[in-house]
Amino acid sequence: MRVSSNQSQFQSFDAINKHQQAIMDVQEKLSTGKRVNRPGDDPIAMNQIHSLNKSINTLTQFEKNGQFAKSQLVQEETAISGTIDGIQRARELAILMKNDTYGANDRKATALEIGQIIEQVKNTMNYTNSEGEKLFAGNSVNVAEAFVPDPNNPGYYAYVGSTNSTVGAATAAIDVQANFGARFVQIGFDADNQLDAGDLGDSSRVRITDNGDRVFKVPNATTQFVDDPAGTPPVALNPQPDANILNILVEFQKTLQAGKAPADNLVTDMDKSLTQLADIRAEIGGRQNRIDAQYDAGQTFKLSLEERKMNIEQMDLVQGISTLTQHQNALQIAQQIFSKVQNSSLFNFIN
Amino acid sequence: MESMLSNMSGVLGETQVQTNGQIENIVQQVNEKLTSIQAINKEVANSTNYGGQPPNDLLDQRDEAIKQFSGLMDIKTFKQPDGRIEIYTADGRYPLLNDNVRTNLSASFTDFRNEQRMEVFIDVSGKQKMISDSVQGGQLGGLLDFRKNMLDKSMNELGVALNGLVASVNWQHYQGYDLNGNPGQDFYQPLSMNAMEKATNTGAEDGTNIKVSFNPVYDPSAPVQGTNPPFDPAAVPPAANAQPATYGDKQTNFQTAMAQIGEFKAREYELTFSSALNGYEVRDYRNGEVLNDAAGNPQFISLGAPDNGVKNVEGLQFDFSAALAPTDGDQFIVKPHQEILNNFKTIIADPETLATRGQSSQDTNNDGLLTDEVPTASAYGDNVNIANIASLQSKKILYSDQNGNAAETILGGYSKMATNVGMYVSGTQIQLTAQENVFNQVNDRREAYSGVNLDEEAANLLRFQQAYQASAQIIQTSQSLFQSLLGAVRL
Predict the structure, then answer these.
(1) Is the reported ipTM for this assembly greater than 0.85?
(2) Taking CB atoms and an 8 Å cutoff, what residues of chain B touch A143?
């Protein structure tokens, strides 16, 4: 077969072109550090990179969510700890005042201190976070007060979700929605990507507000709220105020003001409330631990995702540099061959 | 995101316009080349008729012109006994130069004028015939292939992802309540578009009264209360835009909507009116195939019962109820997934109207179920609905299989498009390499026939030089012989 001179020129040029192209390619990959710069480089990898990016970004968001939730929970925890301290002091005073060595005047003086404790506890129960949202009003974070003065029983307090918050036992509460606490923050992947109505939540989320009624209620309270502890006999209030710790303290104060020794019921109810609050505090601590655990799991997960993404997307520098050198050499050789071949012509020998 | 998308759809739209322009240019070049080949053909025929030497220069010129021509589009050539060459499209169906009569190509918009889509036409016995499908190679073929397999496909696939986003976010938004306790309104501008008519239609309907939208649970025969969000907080049942009777109904409607989103296909629709059946046939505009429903029956939208001119096809509602009278064979096209690229807009502006709250947790009849409750807003601080909107990003909602299980998330829908673009590009690259190899092979063979090896020529030159020298030597020898002979007999 005849090899035309054009052909050899064409071939040499083709080879040079190919090597230049390859060098350009490696150059781009090395300078961006990425093996996949556009979908055409590796379509399948592109798809994987997209999903990996999404998972990594989602995990980062979960981390931020977790931090936010944690700051909320710390506030809640602080509020509850403050309440516990107040109740502890009130309980000590109650046990002290049960002694008959204290007279009516002593008790009246103590009532003043209890008044201060009531103020403090009421304040923490109506605690507002930095965004102006009530911590203990369930979903109704925008209410003015989570615990409002009881209109039926002056001096006592009622939860906004309780029927006691409005006049008459039959009328609906100020805000029934406050009885639900469905404020959740997502801290992990959700299996069905669906949060249902109702305040049950699901395992991928952590609750950040609580229903104040549930937190501050005294479970199985035995105290009977009466109109006047000094009365003979005292008449039970109807309807009875909410059996929350604040009202127990109010009742205690009223008893002391009447110069009477506090009944055993009051002390046991304070005990019950302390147990309840300690439980709630433990639960909040549990939620914080869950956030931490989820954070750790997320970090591990993210690390492996990042690693996988790197394997798919990043350029192996060593390999890239050696490929670059390889192509550079090939290009030089092709260029040299080109000039060599072009020079070798019979015509050079004729003259 | 809106600006990114409008940028993206801008680029795609611009590419479409560019493609149109390029097609027009190439067709013009094709016609010029045809004219020059025709002229040469005439000369060739003349000189062949008068006998004598073949007109080599002209033949070379014509070969070069044909070579350039085939770079524009793929053709077939036939040599005639009188030396003329006939040119056909590569599939042999349409003559471009027959009996030295030129059939000009023209580039013009399709019969669907508003589509703004340039196609290649040929004048066959006075009728314009579209031959874009017959052009497979050359610059023109490449351009048409790019548009069909890359541009259209990407736009439709991106559109499906976007339509999925718009519809799912909107519907999840309808499920919730805003800060004022009102039901959620449109979050994004919902899909709502008209059809494009064909220029040859004779009926009164021009397509503008044919509505295509996403309206998954509307029943044309009996408007049911609460099937038609966005809900009007003031509407009273049984108004269609009042909230459904129970929360359970609302949830069921939402599930239906999500299932319909899964039915979206990256497709363009062609609607053909049949007066015999009094309704519209639904075809795939690209390949003309009749679409089938889930049961395998052809999709058909009847103007009378049972559809009354409104039907959901592949997740989209086609509404002819306001359309004017068409005549038999009238055609319309709809490109819902390209439309959304141009009309993607966030409507919601006021944070107050963002429906973050979900259904109230209150169980009024204490039966442990919320599904039988009247739809009511949850408390101010509730975030169930916004959490669910956020969850949509991880939810598989696009491209359902036959059992209704969705296969892709919205991002997955985008990835699918990106992957397809990548596949097209890398496929083209592989093809390029293969074609280059074939080209080299063919080029080598051509060069072997008609190319020149300078060494060979130099060798030949030497050979002839030597022969020349030898001949000269012989002349010199014979002359000296002659001289000596003359000298010998000199008297």
Answers:
(1) no
(2) 380
